[in-house]
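Protocol step 4 of 6: structure prediction from sequence.
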Amino acid sequence: MSTTPHHDPDEFDAITAAADTDLTGAEVVDLEQARTRRAGRTPDTGDLIEPDDSDDETEDGPVPVDSLAAQRRPRFSLTAFRDAKRVAIIPSWLRSGAEFGRNAAWAAGFGVHALGFHAFRLPVYAVKLTVRAPRGFGRVCKAYGRWLLDLEGEPVRQSVVRAAIDKPDEARMYDRLSSKRDRRVRWRGMITLFLAVMFALAVGALWLAPATAQYTTLAALLVVLGYLGSPADKPLIGTAVVRQDAAPLTSIEVFTALASLGIAGINAAIRRGDNGKSWFPAPIGRENGVGWHCSVELPRGVVASAVVEKREELAAALTRPLGCVWPSVNGDVHPGRLELFVADKDMSRAKQRPFPLLKSGTVNLFKPQPFGTDPRGALVMITLMFASMIIGALPRFGKTFALRLALLIACLDPRSWILAFDLKGTGDLSPLEPVCHAYRAGDDEEDIEYLVTALREIHAEMRRRTKVIRELPRDLCPENKVTDELASNRKLGLHPIAIGIDECQRAFEHPKYGAEIEEICDDLVRRGPALGIMLKLATQRPDAKSLPTGISANAVLRLCLKVMGQTENDMVLGTSMYKNGVRATMFSRRDKGIGFLAGEGDEPVIVKTFEIDGPTAEVIVVRARAARERYGNITGHAAGVVLDTTAVRRDTILEDVAAVMAEAEPKLWSTVIVKRLTALRPDVYTGFTADQLREALKVHGLSTKQCWGEDIDTGETGNRKGFHRADILAAITKRDRSNGGGKTK
């Protein structure tokens, strides 16, 4: 079987001729003479040309070092067949039980629908047949009468009569025709008489037959006569399914579309006489029954990303809806390999398969879970464990829906903790509240304080986990990271933790706590995944300020919906993604919920996330909470615990530190200060750590310094990190001046 589609060469020649109509002043090359020169023969005589070894250059240009045979690609070779991709013997829909089941279910549903549609309309069909039966009887009688009287030959006989006026010899022709017609009518009359007798006998037999036979015969006659009496423009049976068949995709159509994009390399190849026959390394074929897949080997020097950038123009050239045309770069082959999928239906409008976890089931976050579908309708899986995630898009393109979907998947694992922070403040994440260890909606000062307090708790939890992992035996934790088995061991407390922050730029840009939030999130993104902590950030303004580079550079999973420019594209998907042809700028305004998902596989894929609205999310959360209650994992906010934000409020932190540092002790270690703070205000500083002290004072412009000191409780002396009392007092003075002499709230 040929691997390249064969088409009428005249069609290709017509296309290339049309592309060359505007070329004027170009140099015309005699290809026949060029070929004969390369073959070593004179163009006129065919005699061999003696080689000239004196110089590699001739008047006609350089002479190839290799022979023509050496330059020609071998058509058949063991290496080529060894590296070739084998086409599956059994189709994918037969190998996959799930896909076969879906197809069988669809076929059964289609049959039931069609049967029910026509069964419901049987009375209407009966009335139509009854009304149309007289017309059908008349048509039968008219047709039989024309046959009986041989009216089909009447026009011929009349033409002979008219011709006999000028040509008397035609009268004899008329006599012959009339004689044949008379014999034919007599013979048909005898047949009609016989049929009339048989009809009378049949009517008599039917008159004596049981009522069932009479009604059955009458119904059959009504069906036949009603069908014959139906007008051509008014069919008897209605249409149960209105089909909208998409036109097949052909190589000629693809070549014509690519030639119209105005790409310099493609235009140059066509001017050189390339008719596109060698552009298709594999036949164009159907894929999953929802569209056409085409691989295109673009001319040398043309990158597939140039075609991806012109997706809208390509769709117009193919005369298909924009949501049906999905070009991509096949980097596994080379940058010039274009993979084009043309769907039958617009992806943004096509009916999506239901979310597999919509009605039942729990998940294991250590395994891939359904997140959406690709343009071919296949499931796109995502592994949330061991990966932080960044979601970026313009407003109203499905960013919050995608974040909520990821958190919904996480909450269906009964072992997990969910922390949801809606800094947009509209309550889009509120359906998750019944299962959240921490939840907040809004970006007011107290909301940001709540966020900082929760993040500090998780940060401290991460440090605890590092110690637990470090001390576990090698046979239980061979890779020094949380495993499925360790997460299920409730004594270790290594359950998955999923943190979702919508509109994260509101937190990072906060004038008071932004630096601390950024530092904690940076550490969580770097070290958290191995310890079972997954941070998911969503923003509508992906730039270096709203999405710090240290965070964006270390996130594994990235979902980029519609964005406007290259900078935003690469901030979410990663550096050079735009250059490599992965461009979320190509999505249109109606492609809501559709974007590039990177980090799950080797190459980014286009995915349409499952659209779970608020009421549906609430139903899923009810099931998730029930599973957590059975598991015994209702904690924090879901259990009614109110998070204490007193420690994060910097109202008295400077004064308290100054109070525990006597004038005789101008320098103190951080650990000593924390001990004294705990003794000063146990209700506020119990559990307070040196790291928290450093972060608390950092917002006031203070940082730790090397201090020589002594811990009276332990008797230890040495040079450790701490604070100077003079710096604390200076910070108090600076703060009071900036606030008009009052304290910060």
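Step 5 (inspection) to follow. Residues 1-7, 14-26, 40-59, 740-745 have pLDDT under 50 and may be disordered.
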